[in-house]
Give the backbone structure.
Amino acid sequence: MSVTTSWTDGTQDFSGVLMRDLLAAVGAQGKTVEAVTLNDYTYTIEIKDFSLYPVIMATKLNGEVLKVRDKGPLWIIYPLDRFAEQQRAFMEQRMVWQLRQLIVQ
Amino acid sequence: MKPRKLLSVYSLLGVIMLAFSISMILSFNNLRKYEKLAQSEVTDATWIIYQAEIELTRFLNSLDVYMFGETSIYSREDVIERMEIFWSRLPLFLEGREGRKLSKIGNTQEAARTALDVLERMEPRVIALERGDTEEYLDIRAELRGLLEPLHKTLMDARQWQEGAALIRSERLDRGYIELLLASVGILMSGGCLLLLLLHEIREARRAQVSEKSALSRLSDAIESFSDGFSLFDKDDRLVMCNQEFRRMHPQATDKLVPGVEFEKIVRANVDKGQILEAIGQEDEWVKRRMRLHRNPGGDFEIKFADGHWLRISERRTGDGGCVSIRTDITALKQRQEDLSSQQQRADSANKAKTDFLLTMSHELRTPLNAIMGFSEVMKQQLRGPLGDARYVDYANDIYDSANHLLAVISNILDISRIEAGRLELDEQAVVIGDEIDKALRQLEEEARGADVKLASEIEPDLPLLLGDAHKIQQIVINLVGNAVRYMPDSGRVTVRAHREQEGGIVLNVEDDGAGMSAEDVERVISPFVRLSNPMVRAHDGTGLGLPLVKALVELHGGQFMLASEVGKGTTGTAIFPKSRVIQPEATLLQDGSA
């Protein structure tokens, strides 16, 4: 998925698994997921988002496996380029990087 | 204020208001932008450096703990992870939105690049670092520790820069607020002007309305007070207004007389209710005719209504294509006209009956009179032998004279009657007036000598010929002179004159120096069947019809007859024949022809 974020210059090509597929695969039941980062920072995302938008859990950036220094190993990526300018800021907040853990609630 | 001028003032104010509104919206937008900018800049730019600083500290911390603390707390992997996390913060200095911002602040990006260089170099050494290798640890730590100072300095720079930016922003905000304030004041002022103008307009309009109303009410009062019926129709022929009198004149159509009703409907209502006499039986044609008259109003016309009322209707087109209709009740006038004409008719028919009677009677009387005169003449001349006693001859003479007089009376009556009946016609020819006067005087010579009256005539030489009836002109002279002789008290003189008057007519004049009459008597003797009963006058054998006949005969010639008299001085009868009756002398004609 090609995304232009405000943290990088130009379009970046992320790849990974669709969050909705991931949650379905593990049989997750709930309304929200709590994303926990390597720094133990947490952010709560509504699961509804994943059915509305093709949100992915990226593992690769431009064909290469995400390292921690690239804000890996896992990075929740929203299709930012689909949204209007005003919405992008809200969406970027949900794009949690250096993801360590997902807790379905 | 004139409407066009007013409109331009309104437009101007509108444009001003619009301009201020636009500037206000722009100011609002700018303010919002500045405020948003302020928020995001304050949060993000310094936050990135601050976090990098914290991550570096954590990394150093983990390295320290790894070297000297419990192994269970930080493993080698943990140290590497901390390094990676610190690493991951550095590209944010160089790329993206915040990178662009930080590029403006002092050596921020330089510091980040140095940090990345150091990390590149240290990475294998950190990965390879063994617990206990204190020398290597100290070396690595010193390299990494050296990054903290410039990072911290960058944070300070960023803070300072942000404060400056905040100052600029606050200036911009202030400017924005001032712009907003000015725009608001502008809108308020132009709006106020607009409002004042509108109020003024409303007041003017109300004043105009009031004055228009009072003018209208004055006008309608004036129209109401008309004694005539008044109605006004617009260009579509619909009733605009009518007064009470108009309603009173059309009692059968009152329910139709509301503003907006068409003229034709009012006419129809009257016709259908049989109000208009002459329309009965031909309603459609009458309405058509009436509408033609209404559309092309000419003169006035009169209509009789079933209740006996007569209306004179006068219609005029107005300037805007409408029509004003004024109706006058002329019933009383019509009544008087009818009365007068019936009186005249009665008088005329009475007069005609009298004339007819006289004409018939005169004929009936004349026939036996011929016998009386014929036989008395035979007797007085004793054509069939002597009458015996000489007195019979006198009697026969008297019979003849009386019959002769009676014949004259009857002839006069007949003439007057004929003139009145319009049956006497002139036997027109060129008359030599002098000759006719001579003939008349010759006839009266004997009678005048008997009464000791001298007859004289003064006839203007070269008197032109007169187009007239010779016999009747002679009769005029005989009647006038005969009267003068007969009413002469003792001896006297009668003069007949004929001359041209100034206007070109011919004047015939009979003057006597007899008893004369009062003005009252003069009036009476000219009327038929009147005789003077003057004690001064000896018994006469006049018919009393002489002068009226003279007057009638002169008038038959188109002339004028006047009688002037003074008691004790005498009487003058004057007949003036008009110029049209005078035949121009040949000499004059020749002269005219040769000229």
About this structure: Strands of chain A lie at 2-3, 12-18, 32-37, 42-46, 56-61, 64-65, 75-77, 99-104.
